[in-house]
Amino acid sequence: MHIPTTVVSLVIKSMSESMDANMMIHVAKDIIRGYDLHKRTGYRESMAVPQRDAADQIVRDMAKSGLFFYFITHLIQIHTTGYRGRAYPIKYLKEIMRMINEECGFIYDPENQLFVEDPAVRRTRNWGALIEGQEYILSFLRIDVAGNSQLVRKHPDNLVQATFADLRKIIEKAIYARNGRIWNWEGDGGLIAFYFANKSMTATLSGMEIINELFAYNILRSRLGEPVKVRIAVNTGLCVYTQDQVELMKNDSIKETIHIESKYTKPNSMTISNTVSVKLDPSILNGLEPITADGRTGYYAYSINLEQ
Amino acid sequence: MNIYIYSNTKNIEKSFAGAVKNKKFIIHIAPAADLKKTVKNIPKGSIVYADVSSLRTSEIPSALNTLAKLGDSACGIIDPKGTIADIAELFHNGVSDYITPAVLKKGVTLKRLERIMKLKGIEAPVDRLKALKKNYILTGGDWDDVRLGQEYTFCFMMVELDNKSELKSLGPEKFGRITATMHQYLEAMVAPLKGKIWIRMDYGGLVLFPFDGKRCDAIEAAFRLMINRKLMSAELIRLDINFSYRIAMHIGNTEYQTTGDTGTIVSDTINSVFHLCQKYAEPGGLYLTEDIFILAPAGLTSLFLPAGTFEGRNILRMRRIR
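^ inputs. structure came back:
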Protein backbone atom coordinates (compact mmCIF):
# COMPACT_ATOMS: atom_id res chain seq x y z
CA MET A 1 0.00 0.00 0.00
CA HIS A 2 1.27 3.46 -0.87
CA ILE A 3 1.86 5.70 2.14
CA PRO A 4 1.50 9.41 1.33
CA THR A 5 4.68 11.50 1.58
CA THR A 6 3.14 13.84 4.13
CA VAL A 7 2.57 10.93 6.52
CA VAL A 8 6.08 9.52 5.93
CA SER A 9 7.62 12.98 6.52
CA LEU A 10 5.78 13.46 9.78
CA VAL A 11 6.88 10.04 11.07
CA ILE A 12 10.50 10.85 10.12
CA LYS A 13 10.24 14.12 12.04
CA SER A 14 8.68 12.33 15.00
CA MET A 15 11.40 9.64 15.07
CA SER A 16 14.29 12.06 14.78
CA GLU A 17 12.92 14.26 17.60
CA SER A 18 11.98 11.36 19.91
CA MET A 19 15.04 9.06 19.98
CA ASP A 20 18.70 8.80 19.02
CA ALA A 21 19.99 6.73 16.08
CA ASN A 22 21.02 3.88 18.32
CA MET A 23 17.53 3.52 19.71
CA MET A 24 16.13 3.77 16.19
CA ILE A 25 18.25 0.78 15.14
CA HIS A 26 16.86 -1.29 18.02
CA VAL A 27 13.30 -0.37 17.08
CA ALA A 28 13.92 -1.16 13.41
CA LYS A 29 15.44 -4.55 14.31
CA ASP A 30 12.29 -5.38 16.30
CA ILE A 31 10.37 -5.14 13.05
CA ILE A 32 12.91 -6.40 10.51
CA ARG A 33 15.31 -8.97 11.94
CA GLY A 34 18.96 -8.17 11.10
CA TYR A 35 18.17 -4.68 9.83
CA ASP A 36 21.49 -2.98 9.01
CA LEU A 37 21.19 0.80 9.04
CA HIS A 38 24.75 1.43 7.88
CA LYS A 39 24.34 -0.83 4.90
CA ARG A 40 21.01 0.81 4.05
CA THR A 41 22.33 4.38 4.33
CA GLY A 42 25.81 3.75 2.88
CA TYR A 43 27.59 5.21 5.89
CA ARG A 44 30.79 3.42 6.97
CA GLU A 45 30.49 1.20 10.03
CA SER A 46 32.90 3.42 11.95
CA MET A 47 30.72 6.50 11.41
CA ALA A 48 27.62 7.42 13.41
CA VAL A 49 24.56 7.85 11.18
CA PRO A 50 23.07 11.31 11.75
CA GLN A 51 19.73 11.16 13.59
CA ARG A 52 17.74 12.70 10.74
CA ASP A 53 19.26 10.37 8.10
CA ALA A 54 18.63 7.31 10.31
CA ALA A 55 14.97 8.21 10.79
CA ASP A 56 14.54 8.96 7.09
CA GLN A 57 16.02 5.63 6.00
CA ILE A 58 14.16 3.48 8.55
CA VAL A 59 10.74 5.03 7.94
CA ARG A 60 11.10 4.80 4.14
CA ASP A 61 12.24 1.17 4.42
CA MET A 62 9.23 0.35 6.60
CA ALA A 63 6.88 1.98 4.09
CA LYS A 64 8.52 0.17 1.17
CA SER A 65 8.39 -3.24 2.82
CA GLY A 66 4.67 -2.97 3.69
CA LEU A 67 5.38 -2.85 7.41
CA PHE A 68 4.59 0.82 7.94
CA PHE A 69 1.44 0.32 10.06
CA TYR A 70 3.13 -2.42 12.06
CA PHE A 71 6.00 0.01 12.69
CA ILE A 72 3.63 2.78 13.86
CA THR A 73 1.87 0.26 16.14
CA HIS A 74 5.30 -0.47 17.67
CA LEU A 75 5.89 3.26 18.21
CA ILE A 76 2.49 3.53 19.93
CA GLN A 77 3.44 0.68 22.26
CA ILE A 78 6.81 2.32 23.04
CA HIS A 79 4.99 5.58 23.75
CA THR A 80 2.46 3.99 26.10
CA THR A 81 4.50 1.31 27.89
CA GLY A 82 8.12 2.44 27.38
CA TYR A 83 11.04 0.49 25.89
CA ARG A 84 13.25 -1.89 27.86
CA GLY A 85 12.25 -0.26 31.12
CA ARG A 86 12.62 3.34 29.98
CA ALA A 87 9.96 5.86 29.05
CA TYR A 88 10.12 7.05 25.43
CA PRO A 89 7.47 9.62 24.64
CA ILE A 90 7.00 9.70 20.87
CA LYS A 91 6.22 13.13 19.49
CA TYR A 92 3.32 13.94 17.13
CA LEU A 93 1.72 10.50 17.60
CA LYS A 94 -1.82 11.87 17.73
CA GLU A 95 -1.22 13.83 14.57
CA ILE A 96 0.29 10.80 12.84
CA MET A 97 -2.78 8.71 13.72
CA ARG A 98 -5.10 11.46 12.50
CA MET A 99 -3.21 11.71 9.20
CA ILE A 100 -3.22 7.93 8.74
CA ASN A 101 -6.97 8.03 9.18
CA GLU A 102 -7.55 10.97 6.87
CA GLU A 103 -5.03 10.20 4.16
CA CYS A 104 -4.80 6.38 4.24
CA GLY A 105 -8.29 5.52 5.53
CA PHE A 106 -7.05 3.42 8.46
CA ILE A 107 -7.86 3.69 12.16
CA TYR A 108 -5.99 2.35 15.17
CA ASP A 109 -7.69 -0.43 17.12
CA PRO A 110 -6.17 -0.31 20.62
CA GLU A 111 -7.75 -3.62 21.70
CA ASN A 112 -6.07 -5.65 18.96
CA GLN A 113 -3.15 -3.18 18.69
CA LEU A 114 -3.25 -2.82 14.94
CA PHE A 115 -4.42 -0.47 12.22
CA VAL A 116 -7.60 -1.45 10.43
CA GLU A 117 -9.38 0.12 7.53
CA ASP A 118 -11.95 2.75 8.42
CA PRO A 119 -15.31 1.21 7.42
CA ALA A 120 -16.48 4.66 6.38
CA VAL A 121 -13.71 4.70 3.73
CA ARG A 122 -13.52 1.09 2.50
CA ARG A 123 -14.40 -2.47 3.40
CA THR A 124 -12.17 -5.36 2.43
CA ARG A 125 -12.59 -8.90 3.69
CA ASN A 126 -9.50 -8.78 5.93
CA TRP A 127 -10.20 -5.28 7.35
CA GLY A 128 -6.88 -4.33 5.77
CA ALA A 129 -5.24 -6.00 8.76
CA LEU A 130 -5.32 -9.80 8.69
CA ILE A 131 -2.23 -11.33 7.10
CA GLU A 132 -2.33 -14.36 4.82
CA GLY A 133 -1.27 -17.54 6.64
CA GLN A 134 -1.52 -16.01 10.14
CA GLU A 135 -3.79 -17.53 12.79
CA TYR A 136 -6.50 -15.40 14.43
CA ILE A 137 -9.42 -15.86 16.80
CA LEU A 138 -12.55 -14.85 14.92
CA SER A 139 -16.29 -15.05 15.43
CA PHE A 140 -18.35 -16.48 12.59
CA LEU A 141 -21.98 -16.02 11.73
CA ARG A 142 -23.44 -18.54 9.34
CA ILE A 143 -26.85 -17.78 7.81
CA ASP A 144 -28.93 -19.97 5.54
CA VAL A 145 -32.46 -19.74 4.16
CA ALA A 146 -34.49 -22.72 5.35
CA GLY A 147 -36.51 -24.35 2.56
CA ASN A 148 -34.70 -22.40 -0.13
CA SER A 149 -35.34 -24.95 -2.89
CA GLN A 150 -39.07 -24.96 -2.15
CA LEU A 151 -39.18 -21.16 -2.44
CA VAL A 152 -37.32 -21.31 -5.73
CA ARG A 153 -39.67 -23.95 -7.13
CA LYS A 154 -42.84 -22.28 -5.89
CA HIS A 155 -42.29 -18.61 -6.85
CA PRO A 156 -41.22 -16.73 -9.98
CA ASP A 157 -37.47 -16.26 -10.23
CA ASN A 158 -37.59 -12.44 -10.21
CA LEU A 159 -39.56 -12.41 -6.94
CA VAL A 160 -37.21 -14.91 -5.30
CA GLN A 161 -34.14 -12.95 -6.44
CA ALA A 162 -35.65 -9.67 -5.19
CA THR A 163 -36.41 -11.33 -1.84
CA PHE A 164 -32.85 -12.62 -1.49
CA ALA A 165 -31.57 -9.13 -2.36
CA ASP A 166 -33.77 -7.73 0.43
CA LEU A 167 -32.36 -10.36 2.79
CA ARG A 168 -28.81 -9.40 1.87
CA LYS A 169 -29.63 -5.73 2.61
CA ILE A 170 -30.92 -6.71 6.06
CA ILE A 171 -27.76 -8.73 6.71
CA GLU A 172 -25.42 -6.00 5.46
CA LYS A 173 -27.09 -3.36 7.63
CA ALA A 174 -26.78 -5.54 10.72
CA ILE A 175 -23.18 -6.67 10.21
CA TYR A 176 -21.59 -3.52 8.79
CA ALA A 177 -22.89 -1.52 11.76
CA ARG A 178 -20.81 -3.92 13.89
CA ASN A 179 -17.75 -4.11 11.60
CA GLY A 180 -18.45 -7.62 10.29
CA ARG A 181 -17.31 -8.81 6.85
CA ILE A 182 -18.98 -11.15 4.38
CA TRP A 183 -16.51 -13.95 3.68
CA ASN A 184 -18.77 -16.11 1.61
CA TRP A 185 -22.10 -15.46 -0.10
CA GLU A 186 -24.19 -18.10 -1.84
CA GLY A 187 -27.16 -16.04 -2.95
CA ASP A 188 -29.45 -17.06 -0.13
CA GLY A 189 -26.99 -16.95 2.74
CA GLY A 190 -23.37 -17.10 3.64
CA LEU A 191 -20.62 -16.70 6.16
CA ILE A 192 -19.80 -13.49 8.03
CA ALA A 193 -16.62 -12.90 10.05
CA PHE A 194 -16.09 -10.60 13.05
CA TYR A 195 -12.70 -9.75 14.47
CA PHE A 196 -12.80 -6.49 16.40
CA ALA A 197 -14.06 -5.35 19.80
CA ASN A 198 -15.97 -8.13 21.61
CA LYS A 199 -16.37 -10.19 18.45
CA SER A 200 -18.58 -12.83 20.06
CA MET A 201 -20.94 -10.11 21.20
CA THR A 202 -21.01 -8.17 17.94
CA ALA A 203 -21.69 -11.37 15.99
CA THR A 204 -24.51 -12.33 18.37
CA LEU A 205 -26.09 -8.88 18.26
CA SER A 206 -25.88 -8.91 14.46
CA GLY A 207 -27.71 -12.26 14.43
CA MET A 208 -30.39 -10.92 16.76
CA GLU A 209 -30.91 -7.89 14.53
CA ILE A 210 -31.20 -10.08 11.42
CA ILE A 211 -33.83 -12.29 13.13
CA ASN A 212 -35.78 -9.21 14.28
CA GLU A 213 -35.61 -7.38 10.97
CA LEU A 214 -36.59 -10.46 9.00
CA PHE A 215 -39.54 -10.97 11.34
CA ALA A 216 -40.69 -7.41 10.55
CA TYR A 217 -39.94 -7.88 6.84
CA ASN A 218 -42.06 -11.04 6.65
CA ILE A 219 -44.99 -9.22 8.20
CA LEU A 220 -44.73 -5.85 6.47
CA ARG A 221 -42.84 -6.16 3.19
CA SER A 222 -42.88 -9.77 2.07
CA ARG A 223 -42.89 -10.19 -1.70
CA LEU A 224 -43.64 -13.90 -1.69
CA GLY A 225 -46.77 -13.96 0.43
CA GLU A 226 -45.07 -16.37 2.79
CA PRO A 227 -42.35 -15.85 5.37
CA VAL A 228 -38.67 -16.24 4.53
CA LYS A 229 -37.13 -18.34 7.29
CA VAL A 230 -33.46 -18.36 8.13
CA ARG A 231 -31.20 -20.41 10.37
CA ILE A 232 -28.29 -18.58 11.98
CA ALA A 233 -25.35 -19.98 13.94
CA VAL A 234 -22.66 -18.00 15.73
CA ASN A 235 -19.36 -19.57 16.77
CA THR A 236 -15.93 -18.30 17.84
CA GLY A 237 -12.66 -20.09 17.14
CA LEU A 238 -9.20 -20.13 15.63
CA CYS A 239 -8.79 -19.55 11.93
CA VAL A 240 -5.78 -19.27 9.64
CA TYR A 241 -6.58 -16.36 7.37
CA THR A 242 -6.43 -16.98 3.65
CA GLN A 243 -7.90 -15.37 0.56
CA ASP A 244 -8.39 -18.86 -0.87
CA GLN A 245 -12.11 -19.51 -0.51
CA VAL A 246 -11.84 -23.30 -0.80
CA GLU A 247 -9.05 -23.48 1.77
CA LEU A 248 -10.95 -21.14 4.10
CA MET A 249 -14.05 -23.33 4.16
CA LYS A 250 -11.88 -26.25 5.34
CA ASN A 251 -11.18 -24.44 8.62
CA ASP A 252 -12.46 -26.36 11.66
CA SER A 253 -14.13 -23.36 13.33
CA ILE A 254 -15.98 -22.52 10.14
CA LYS A 255 -17.00 -26.15 9.58
CA GLU A 256 -18.29 -26.28 13.16
CA THR A 257 -20.31 -23.10 12.63
CA ILE A 258 -21.96 -24.65 9.57
CA HIS A 259 -22.60 -27.85 11.54
CA ILE A 260 -24.31 -25.91 14.36
CA GLU A 261 -26.44 -24.06 11.84
CA SER A 262 -27.61 -27.15 9.99
CA LYS A 263 -27.93 -29.56 12.92
CA TYR A 264 -29.03 -27.59 15.98
CA THR A 265 -30.81 -24.55 14.62
CA LYS A 266 -34.53 -24.31 14.02
CA PRO A 267 -35.89 -22.14 11.19
CA ASN A 268 -36.25 -18.48 12.20
CA SER A 269 -33.80 -18.82 15.04
CA MET A 270 -30.15 -18.34 15.94
CA THR A 271 -27.93 -20.73 17.90
CA ILE A 272 -24.80 -19.50 19.63
CA SER A 273 -22.08 -21.94 20.67
CA ASN A 274 -20.39 -22.27 24.05
CA THR A 275 -17.29 -20.45 22.79
CA VAL A 276 -19.53 -17.46 22.16
CA SER A 277 -21.73 -17.56 25.26
CA VAL A 278 -18.74 -17.43 27.64
CA LYS A 279 -17.86 -14.05 26.20
CA LEU A 280 -21.33 -12.53 26.50
CA ASP A 281 -22.74 -10.21 29.15
CA PRO A 282 -25.42 -11.79 31.35
CA SER A 283 -27.74 -9.08 30.00
CA ILE A 284 -27.58 -10.74 26.57
CA LEU A 285 -27.81 -14.33 27.82
CA ASN A 286 -30.95 -13.40 29.80
CA GLY A 287 -32.77 -12.96 26.53
CA LEU A 288 -31.69 -16.33 25.11
CA GLU A 289 -32.86 -19.89 25.72
CA PRO A 290 -30.28 -22.43 26.95
CA ILE A 291 -30.10 -25.55 24.76
CA THR A 292 -27.79 -28.57 24.52
CA ALA A 293 -25.93 -29.56 21.39
CA ASP A 294 -24.14 -32.91 21.08
CA GLY A 295 -24.67 -33.22 24.84
CA ARG A 296 -22.68 -30.03 25.41
CA THR A 297 -24.09 -27.16 27.44
CA GLY A 298 -23.44 -23.47 27.02
CA TYR A 299 -25.37 -23.29 23.75
CA TYR A 300 -28.20 -20.78 23.50
CA ALA A 301 -30.99 -20.09 21.03
CA TYR A 302 -32.65 -16.81 20.09
CA SER A 303 -35.95 -16.41 18.27
CA ILE A 304 -39.11 -14.32 18.37
CA ASN A 305 -41.99 -16.37 19.73
CA LEU A 306 -45.34 -14.68 19.76
CA GLU A 307 -48.13 -15.53 22.16
CA GLN A 308 -50.80 -17.56 20.33
CA MET B 1 -64.52 -5.46 12.25
CA ASN B 2 -63.62 -8.62 14.12
CA ILE B 3 -65.16 -12.05 13.80
CA TYR B 4 -64.31 -14.51 16.56
CA ILE B 5 -64.88 -18.18 15.79
CA TYR B 6 -64.64 -20.61 18.67
CA SER B 7 -64.21 -23.92 16.90
CA ASN B 8 -62.03 -27.01 16.70
CA THR B 9 -63.23 -27.83 13.17
CA LYS B 10 -60.31 -28.05 10.76
CA ASN B 11 -60.16 -25.26 8.14
CA ILE B 12 -63.28 -23.56 9.50
CA GLU B 13 -61.85 -20.21 8.32
CA LYS B 14 -62.24 -21.38 4.71
CA SER B 15 -66.02 -21.09 5.06
CA PHE B 16 -65.53 -17.37 5.86
CA ALA B 17 -62.91 -16.73 3.19
CA GLY B 18 -65.35 -15.01 0.82
CA ALA B 19 -66.59 -12.68 3.54
CA VAL B 20 -63.13 -11.50 4.58
CA LYS B 21 -61.70 -11.16 1.08
CA ASN B 22 -62.02 -7.37 1.03
CA LYS B 23 -60.42 -7.09 4.49
CA LYS B 24 -63.50 -5.42 5.95
CA PHE B 25 -63.52 -8.19 8.53
CA ILE B 26 -60.68 -9.85 10.41
CA ILE B 27 -61.13 -13.45 11.48
CA HIS B 28 -59.79 -14.76 14.78
CA ILE B 29 -60.00 -18.51 15.40
CA ALA B 30 -59.77 -19.90 18.93
CA PRO B 31 -60.37 -23.35 20.45
CA ALA B 32 -63.98 -23.87 21.51
CA ALA B 33 -62.82 -24.52 25.07
CA ASP B 34 -61.58 -20.90 25.31
CA LEU B 35 -65.01 -19.39 24.75
CA LYS B 36 -65.90 -18.74 28.39
CA LYS B 37 -62.40 -17.64 29.31
CA THR B 38 -61.68 -15.14 26.52
CA VAL B 39 -64.96 -13.94 25.06
CA LYS B 40 -65.33 -11.25 27.70
CA ASN B 41 -62.22 -9.50 26.32
CA ILE B 42 -63.34 -9.20 22.72
CA PRO B 43 -63.89 -5.68 21.44
CA LYS B 44 -67.45 -4.49 21.45
CA GLY B 45 -69.06 -4.51 18.04
CA SER B 46 -67.62 -7.93 17.09
CA ILE B 47 -69.42 -11.00 15.77
CA VAL B 48 -68.80 -14.16 17.81
CA TYR B 49 -69.52 -17.66 16.50
CA ALA B 50 -69.53 -20.82 18.60
CA ASP B 51 -69.19 -24.15 16.83
CA VAL B 52 -71.47 -26.59 18.65
CA SER B 53 -69.80 -29.59 17.03
CA SER B 54 -66.67 -28.70 19.03
CA LEU B 55 -68.57 -28.74 22.32
CA ARG B 56 -69.93 -31.62 24.38
CA THR B 57 -73.75 -31.69 24.53
CA SER B 58 -73.59 -30.81 28.21
CA GLU B 59 -71.48 -27.72 27.43
CA ILE B 60 -73.85 -26.24 24.85
CA PRO B 61 -76.37 -24.57 27.23
CA SER B 62 -73.55 -22.92 29.15
CA ALA B 63 -71.96 -21.68 25.89
CA LEU B 64 -75.31 -20.25 24.75
CA ASN B 65 -75.67 -18.56 28.11
CA THR B 66 -72.23 -16.95 27.71
CA LEU B 67 -73.10 -15.71 24.22
CA ALA B 68 -76.42 -14.31 25.43
CA LYS B 69 -74.52 -12.03 27.81
CA LEU B 70 -72.58 -10.36 24.97
CA GLY B 71 -74.50 -7.11 25.03
CA ASP B 72 -72.33 -5.09 22.63
CA SER B 73 -71.56 -7.81 20.10
CA ALA B 74 -73.55 -10.11 17.86
CA CYS B 75 -73.34 -13.87 18.17
CA GLY B 76 -74.02 -16.85 15.97
CA ILE B 77 -74.00 -20.63 16.09
CA ILE B 78 -72.12 -22.87 13.68
CA ASP B 79 -73.72 -26.30 13.45
CA PRO B 80 -71.63 -28.39 11.01
CA LYS B 81 -73.56 -31.60 11.77
CA GLY B 82 -77.05 -30.10 12.03
CA THR B 83 -77.53 -31.32 15.59
CA ILE B 84 -79.53 -28.39 17.00
CA ALA B 85 -83.15 -29.45 17.19
CA ASP B 86 -84.84 -26.15 18.06
CA ILE B 87 -83.24 -23.44 15.97
CA ALA B 88 -85.91 -20.85 16.78
CA GLU B 89 -85.01 -21.11 20.44
CA LEU B 90 -81.52 -19.90 19.62
CA PHE B 91 -82.95 -16.71 18.16
CA HIS B 92 -85.28 -16.32 21.15
CA ASN B 93 -82.13 -16.34 23.27
CA GLY B 94 -80.55 -13.50 21.33
CA VAL B 95 -78.51 -15.36 18.71
CA SER B 96 -78.27 -13.38 15.46
CA ASP B 97 -77.13 -16.10 13.06
CA TYR B 98 -77.26 -19.84 12.56
CA ILE B 99 -74.86 -21.50 10.12
CA THR B 100 -76.20 -24.76 8.71
CA PRO B 101 -73.97 -27.45 7.14
CA ALA B 102 -75.12 -26.22 3.70
CA VAL B 103 -74.20 -22.59 4.42
CA LEU B 104 -70.86 -23.75 5.79
CA LYS B 105 -70.19 -25.69 2.60
CA LYS B 106 -71.28 -22.84 0.34
CA GLY B 107 -69.41 -20.24 2.36
CA VAL B 108 -70.53 -17.34 4.54
CA THR B 109 -70.98 -14.17 2.51
CA LEU B 110 -70.07 -10.59 3.26
CA LYS B 111 -73.69 -9.58 2.78
CA ARG B 112 -74.76 -12.00 5.49
CA LEU B 113 -72.34 -10.50 8.01
CA GLU B 114 -73.40 -6.97 7.06
CA ARG B 115 -77.05 -7.90 7.63
CA ILE B 116 -76.18 -9.21 11.10
CA MET B 117 -74.45 -5.95 11.91
CA LYS B 118 -77.41 -3.95 10.71
CA LEU B 119 -79.76 -6.12 12.74
CA LYS B 120 -77.71 -5.56 15.89
CA GLY B 121 -77.00 -1.89 15.15
CA ILE B 122 -73.24 -2.49 15.07
CA GLU B 123 -71.06 0.14 13.47
CA ALA B 124 -68.70 -1.25 10.80
CA PRO B 125 -65.05 -0.11 10.92
CA VAL B 126 -65.61 1.75 7.69
CA ASP B 127 -68.49 3.63 9.31
CA ARG B 128 -66.42 4.13 12.44
CA LEU B 129 -63.60 5.49 10.33
CA LYS B 130 -66.04 7.79 8.52
CA ALA B 131 -67.26 9.13 11.88
CA LEU B 132 -63.70 9.65 13.10
CA LYS B 133 -62.66 11.27 9.83
CA LYS B 134 -65.13 14.09 10.44
CA ASN B 135 -62.94 15.24 13.33
CA TYR B 136 -59.60 14.90 11.58
CA ILE B 137 -57.58 18.08 11.04
CA LEU B 138 -54.81 16.72 8.85
CA THR B 139 -51.19 17.77 9.20
CA GLY B 140 -50.11 16.22 5.91
CA GLY B 141 -47.33 13.67 5.72
CA ASP B 142 -44.72 15.82 7.49
CA TRP B 143 -44.26 18.81 9.79
CA ASP B 144 -43.89 21.51 7.13
CA ASP B 145 -47.41 22.86 7.44
CA VAL B 146 -47.82 22.44 11.19
CA ARG B 147 -48.21 25.82 12.89
CA LEU B 148 -47.83 26.67 16.58
CA GLY B 149 -51.08 27.16 18.48
CA GLN B 150 -53.18 25.38 15.82
CA GLU B 151 -55.13 22.18 16.41
CA TYR B 152 -54.28 19.06 14.39
CA THR B 153 -54.83 15.33 14.39
CA PHE B 154 -51.72 13.42 15.42
CA CYS B 155 -50.86 9.80 16.10
CA PHE B 156 -49.71 9.59 19.71
CA MET B 157 -47.26 7.06 21.07
CA MET B 158 -46.49 7.04 24.77
CA VAL B 159 -43.53 4.96 25.94
CA GLU B 160 -42.81 4.38 29.61
CA LEU B 161 -40.18 2.27 31.36
CA ASP B 162 -41.61 -0.43 33.61
CA ASN B 163 -39.16 -1.21 36.40
CA LYS B 164 -38.93 2.33 37.76
CA SER B 165 -37.81 1.63 41.30
CA GLU B 166 -35.16 -0.84 40.14
CA LEU B 167 -33.82 1.69 37.65
CA LYS B 168 -33.88 4.54 40.15
CA SER B 169 -31.93 2.44 42.66
CA LEU B 170 -29.00 2.29 40.22
CA GLY B 171 -28.14 5.86 41.17
CA PRO B 172 -28.63 9.19 39.36
CA GLU B 173 -25.67 8.79 37.01
CA LYS B 174 -26.61 5.35 35.65
CA PHE B 175 -30.27 6.25 35.61
CA GLY B 176 -29.53 9.41 33.65
CA ARG B 177 -27.48 7.40 31.14
CA ILE B 178 -30.30 4.89 30.70
CA THR B 179 -32.97 7.53 30.09
CA ALA B 180 -30.67 9.43 27.71
CA THR B 181 -29.97 6.20 25.78
CA MET B 182 -33.66 5.37 25.77
CA HIS B 183 -34.57 8.81 24.36
CA GLN B 184 -31.82 8.55 21.74
CA TYR B 185 -32.98 5.10 20.64
CA LEU B 186 -36.61 6.20 20.60
CA GLU B 187 -35.70 9.19 18.44
CA ALA B 188 -33.81 6.98 15.98
CA MET B 189 -36.73 4.57 15.79
CA VAL B 190 -39.46 7.19 15.20
CA ALA B 191 -37.50 9.62 13.00
CA PRO B 192 -37.87 7.60 9.73
CA LEU B 193 -41.64 7.78 10.25
CA LYS B 194 -41.48 11.55 10.91
CA GLY B 195 -42.15 11.11 14.62
CA LYS B 196 -40.66 13.36 17.30
CA ILE B 197 -40.49 13.16 21.06
CA TRP B 198 -42.89 15.91 22.08
CA ILE B 199 -42.92 15.50 25.86
CA ARG B 200 -39.84 14.03 27.54
CA MET B 201 -40.19 12.37 30.90
CA ASP B 202 -37.72 10.65 33.23
CA TYR B 203 -39.23 7.29 32.45
CA GLY B 204 -40.12 7.71 28.80
CA GLY B 205 -41.80 10.15 26.50
CA LEU B 206 -44.75 11.06 24.34
CA VAL B 207 -44.07 10.88 20.60
CA LEU B 208 -46.14 12.74 18.00
CA PHE B 209 -46.49 11.61 14.40
CA PRO B 210 -48.05 13.76 11.69
CA PHE B 211 -51.15 12.24 10.13
CA ASP B 212 -52.17 12.49 6.48
CA GLY B 213 -55.59 10.87 6.86
CA LYS B 214 -54.57 7.57 5.31
CA ARG B 215 -52.87 4.85 7.27
CA CYS B 216 -50.87 5.12 10.43
CA ASP B 217 -47.34 3.76 9.90
CA ALA B 218 -46.42 5.04 13.35
CA ILE B 219 -47.65 1.68 14.66
CA GLU B 220 -44.70 0.11 12.85
CA ALA B 221 -42.32 2.12 15.05
CA ALA B 222 -44.04 0.79 18.18
CA PHE B 223 -43.97 -2.75 16.80
CA ARG B 224 -40.23 -2.42 16.13
CA LEU B 225 -39.65 -1.14 19.65
CA MET B 226 -41.34 -4.27 20.96
CA ILE B 227 -39.42 -6.78 18.84
CA ASN B 228 -36.08 -5.03 19.43
CA ARG B 229 -36.39 -4.76 23.21
CA LYS B 230 -33.90 -7.57 23.96
CA LEU B 231 -31.43 -6.27 21.38
CA MET B 232 -31.69 -2.74 22.72
CA SER B 233 -31.28 -3.98 26.26
CA ALA B 234 -28.20 -6.01 25.33
CA GLU B 235 -26.51 -3.49 23.07
CA LEU B 236 -27.32 -0.14 24.60
CA ILE B 237 -28.45 -0.51 28.18
CA ARG B 238 -26.29 -3.45 29.32
CA LEU B 239 -27.81 -3.98 32.75
CA ASP B 240 -28.41 -7.16 34.66
CA ILE B 241 -32.03 -6.16 35.16
CA ASN B 242 -34.99 -6.91 32.97
CA PHE B 243 -35.22 -3.82 30.79
CA SER B 244 -38.83 -3.39 29.88
CA TYR B 245 -41.24 -0.74 28.68
CA ARG B 246 -44.91 -0.40 27.87
CA ILE B 247 -46.35 1.51 24.94
CA ALA B 248 -49.79 3.01 24.37
CA MET B 249 -51.01 4.50 21.08
CA HIS B 250 -54.01 6.58 20.18
CA ILE B 251 -55.05 9.04 17.48
CA GLY B 252 -56.78 12.32 18.12
CA ASN B 253 -56.57 16.07 18.17
CA THR B 254 -54.50 18.52 20.12
CA GLU B 255 -53.21 22.04 19.86
CA TYR B 256 -49.58 21.98 18.74
CA GLN B 257 -46.87 23.75 20.73
CA THR B 258 -43.12 23.21 20.69
CA THR B 259 -41.50 20.78 23.12
CA GLY B 260 -41.22 22.43 26.52
CA ASP B 261 -44.24 24.70 25.94
CA THR B 262 -46.85 21.99 26.27
CA GLY B 263 -47.73 22.63 29.93
CA THR B 264 -50.84 24.69 29.24
CA ILE B 265 -52.38 22.40 26.59
CA VAL B 266 -55.70 20.86 27.57
CA SER B 267 -56.39 17.81 25.40
CA ASP B 268 -58.63 14.82 25.90
CA THR B 269 -56.44 12.83 23.50
CA ILE B 270 -53.28 13.45 25.55
CA ASN B 271 -55.12 12.47 28.74
CA SER B 272 -56.42 9.31 27.08
CA VAL B 273 -53.00 8.11 25.91
CA PHE B 274 -51.42 8.91 29.30
CA HIS B 275 -54.19 7.06 31.14
CA LEU B 276 -54.02 4.08 28.77
CA CYS B 277 -50.27 3.79 29.31
CA GLN B 278 -50.15 4.43 33.03
CA LYS B 279 -53.42 2.97 34.30
CA TYR B 280 -54.31 0.18 31.88
CA ALA B 281 -51.26 -1.12 30.00
CA GLU B 282 -49.42 -4.02 31.56
CA PRO B 283 -45.59 -4.10 31.76
CA GLY B 284 -43.92 -4.98 28.47
CA GLY B 285 -47.12 -4.53 26.45
CA LEU B 286 -48.10 -2.53 23.37
CA TYR B 287 -51.68 -1.24 23.53
CA LEU B 288 -53.69 0.50 20.82
CA THR B 289 -57.08 2.15 20.96
CA GLU B 290 -59.40 0.88 18.24
CA ASP B 291 -59.37 4.41 16.75
CA ILE B 292 -55.73 3.96 15.76
CA PHE B 293 -55.83 0.19 15.23
CA ILE B 294 -58.19 0.57 12.26
CA LEU B 295 -55.44 2.59 10.56
CA ALA B 296 -52.69 -0.01 11.16
CA PRO B 297 -50.69 -1.42 8.23
CA ALA B 298 -52.45 -4.59 7.08
CA GLY B 299 -49.73 -7.05 8.08
CA LEU B 300 -49.71 -5.90 11.68
CA THR B 301 -53.39 -6.34 12.51
CA SER B 302 -53.15 -10.10 13.10
CA LEU B 303 -50.53 -9.47 15.80
CA PHE B 304 -53.09 -7.80 18.02
CA LEU B 305 -55.59 -9.32 20.41
CA PRO B 306 -58.62 -7.67 21.97
CA ALA B 307 -57.81 -6.42 25.45
CA GLY B 308 -61.16 -5.18 26.73
CA THR B 309 -62.41 -1.61 26.88
CA PHE B 310 -60.95 1.39 28.66
CA GLU B 311 -62.55 4.82 29.05
CA GLY B 312 -65.22 3.77 26.55
CA ARG B 313 -62.82 2.62 23.84
CA ASN B 314 -62.01 -0.86 22.56
CA ILE B 315 -58.39 -1.66 23.31
CA LEU B 316 -56.10 -4.06 21.46
CA ARG B 317 -52.86 -5.52 22.76
CA MET B 318 -49.96 -6.86 20.71
CA ARG B 319 -49.30 -10.55 21.29
CA ARG B 320 -46.54 -10.92 23.85
CA ILE B 321 -43.05 -11.89 22.72
CA ARG B 322 -41.69 -14.79 24.70
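The longest strand of chain B covers residues 151-161. The mean pLDDT of chain B is 87.
thumbs up if we can close this ticket
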